[in-house]
Amino acid sequence: MEKETLVSSSSSSSSWGADPPPEDCWIEAHRELLPRWRSLRESSQIPFSCLFITQQTPIPISISRVNQFDAARLDVEMTAMLKEQLVKVFSLMKPGFLFQYEPELDAFLEFLIWRFSIWVDKPTPGNALMNLRYRDERAVPTGGKEGAQLIFLNCFTSDSVRTGLEGPGLSVSQKIWYCLTTVGGRYIWSRLQSFSAFRRWGDFEQRSLGRRLWLLIQRVEGLYKAASFSNLLIFLYTGRYRSIIERALKARLVYGSPNMNRAVSFEYMNRQLVWNEFSNFMLSKVPGLFFSRIMNKFVKAGEKVQRKRKSLA
Question: Residue 263 pLDDT more than 70?
Answer without folding.
Answer: no
